[in-house]
Write a sequence for this structure.
């Protein structure tokens, strides 16, 4: 296999949520969505806009490459929905959770994906800081929010959420921002994690009730002289055994 030598990129800058820029072979290169080009004052020709519209109708995300301020290519990107996504969402809803898809893609692209996996709501065209703000707003409204993500654009929301879950194949910054890392490719690990945490919390509460109940009942009896020290020691050992067994 022969791999052609790629040109050297200098002065590279990642534009989070929008694209990237750099200098390639002496040309100023800018690649990203149409919003980025419009913000930089680069006009889109009718041919480019037509290509973007066609890709949007096919539920694909368009990425435009501009060299020296002129669009030269349009790339169409299409996400492949994981087979485990829809079952995972269905299980989360069965657990009584409301599911929301936050996406930087347009509504025309994110909408069909959200419909395919069965989420309750789709919020599209959101930048990374907007994702974090939406999570923060939900939490200020009294909601407990868990965020699942794997990309650079998800890192702020993962750090903001009460519980951040990152997929192990995600970017380093996403993994560092999350509280829990899902090491399985199957997204049904997310509802499994929720069930496990609920079972753990329930066990902790049961153990606390038993431990406090034992002491509340035993201490007055011991103080009044109605509880033999040997019986108290045996009861304490039994209490510890029950707590461990219950766990």
């Amino acid at each position: 296999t022969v791999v052609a030598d790629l040109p050297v990129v200098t002065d590279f800058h990642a534009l989070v949520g929008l694209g990237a820029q750099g200098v390639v072979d002496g040309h100023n290169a800018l690649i990203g969505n149409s919003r980025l080009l419009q913000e930089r004052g680069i006009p889109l020709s009718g041919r480019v806009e037509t290509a973007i519209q066609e890709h949007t109708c096919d539920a694909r995300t368009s990425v435009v490459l501009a060299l020296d301020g002129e669009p030269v290519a349009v790339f169409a990107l299409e996400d492949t929905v994981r087979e485990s996504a829809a079952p995972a969402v269905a299980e989360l809803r069965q657990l009584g959770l409301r599911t929301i898809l936050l996406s930087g893609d347009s509504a025309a692209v994110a909408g069909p994906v959200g419909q395919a996996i069965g989420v309750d709501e789709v919020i599209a065209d959101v930048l990374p800081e907007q994702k974090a703000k939406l999570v923060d707003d939900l939490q200020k409204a009294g909601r407990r929010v868990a965020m699942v993500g794997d990309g650079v654009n998800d890192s702020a929301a993962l750090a903001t959420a009460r519980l951040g879950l990152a997929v192990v194949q995600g970017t380093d910054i996403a993994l560092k921002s999350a509280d829990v890392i899902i090491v399985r490719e199957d997204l049904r690990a997310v509802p499994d994690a929720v069930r496990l945490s609920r079972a753990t919390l329930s066990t902790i509460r049961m153990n606390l009730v038993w431990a406090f109940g034992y002491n509340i009942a035993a201490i007055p009896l011991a103080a009044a002289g109605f509880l033999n020290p040997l019986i108290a020691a045996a009861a304490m050992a039994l209490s510890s055994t029950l707590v461990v067994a219950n766990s």
